Amino acid sequence: MHVDNRYQRRAAALERRQRARVSVILPNYNHGWLLPRSLGALIQQSVLPQEILVIDDGSTDDSVAVIEAYARRCDRIRLIRHKANQGAFAAVRTGIAAAGGDVLLFAAADDFILPDLIARAVEALSANPQAAFFCSQVALIDRQRRMVGLRPVVPPRYQSGYLSPAEVRREIRHTDNWFVGPSVIYRREPLAAIGYFDESLGTLCDGLAARLLAFRHGFYFAAEVLAVWTVDSSSLSAKSSLSVSESRRVIDVGRRWITARFPADVRDTYREMFDRRLRFNMARHWLVWRSGAINSGAISELLNWGRFDRALSRQLSLIPRIGPLLVLALMTTRMRPFGLIALLRSWFYARVVERRRRSSLAHALGATGRSSGHTETTTEPGRAS
Length: 385
Hints:
The protein has helices at residues 5-19, 35-43, 63-73, 88-98, 117-127, 165-171, 188-193, 205-217, 236-241, 244-261, 267-288, 296-302, 307-317, 323-335, 340-353, 355-371; strands spanning 22-28, 51-57, 77-82, 103-106, 112-113, 133-141, 147-151, 161-163, 185-187, 219-230. It has 385 residues and is an alpha/beta fold. It contains 16 helices and 10 strands. The protein folds into 2 domains: 5-232, Spore Coat Polysaccharide Biosynthesis Protein SpsA, Chain A (Alpha-Beta Complex); 237-340, no CATH class.
C-alpha cells in the first residue's frame, strides 16, 4: 500500500517534537511586578515547555509569592532560590545546572513571548537538526507598552528558513545583529560545546555566543514576530552604552574574544565589522536615551572620530528639532552598520510590504498589555542595579 510521504514526514516531525525537551530558564531579581506577564506568556504557549525554572536571585520584593502562586497553577514551574543576590550570571548558571532539557530558552522577567514561539522553534529545530538555534523577529515596546519598532532592523532573510554557515558568511557582510534575546532558543549540545556564555563579555555574552554558533552550524530564522522585548534606558546594556569607558572596555573584550574563538576564515574581517557596528549601536544609544542636549563629544569619542567629523557632529547636534536625525545620518554614513542595498530593501519591506501587518501587531500588543492582568506602578520597586 502506498503511503504519502507528506504524512510520513509530518508523523516523524510530530514524534521528534514530542521527544524534544524544552527547558525555560528565567532569572529574577525584584521583578515581582513584571512576573505575571512573563510567566503568564510561558504557561499560555501552544506547546508547553517541559519545565520552567525560575531562579530567584535573593529578591526582597514579593517575587517569591508571585512565583509560588504561578507554580500552583502550573506544575511545570519550579522555583529555585538564591538566599542572597549573586547577579544575573550566577542565576543563569544555576538554571543551566538544573535544566534537564535538550533545548533551552533563556527568558527575562521584563520581556515576554507570544503563544507560538516554542511550537515554532521545536518544529524548526526538529526539521533542521544542523541548526544550532532558532530565532525570530521581535517587537520592541516601551514601558507604556507602545510598540516602538521591530528587530532585527535588517533581517537575514524575508522568508522563514535555515541559514547555513556559508549563507551566514555571505549575509553577515551586509548586516548582522539578527539574534534578539527573547526569541532565541538554543539546542543545548552546541551551546554547551562553546562553554555556554562567557561572563567576561558582559552584555555581549549571548550575542557573541550566537554569532559563533551561527558561523559553526547555521541557524533557523522565523520571519514573524514571536517575542516582545521591553526597551529601557535603565537596562544593563543601555547603561553600558552610556558610559564611554565601559563601552570601550566591552568593545576591546569582544575583539579579543572574536580573535581567540571565531573560525580562522572569518575572524579578522568579522572582528573589524563587529567593532564598527557595535560602536554605531552604542553611539546610537546616546541619541535614543539622551536627556536634554546631544552629547556629541561622547559620541565622537566612542566612534573614534577625527577633528572634521567631531566638528561636524557638534554643529549638526545644535540644529533644533532635526539635530538628532542629522547626527544619526552622519553616523550611518561614516560607520556603515548596514549595506546600503540591504538597508533600502528592509525599509521598503517595512514601509510598503508589511505596513498593515505592523499596524495590526502594534494594536494587538497594546490590547495584550491591557488584558494581561499586569499592574504597573509609577515606580519600579527594587529594580536591579
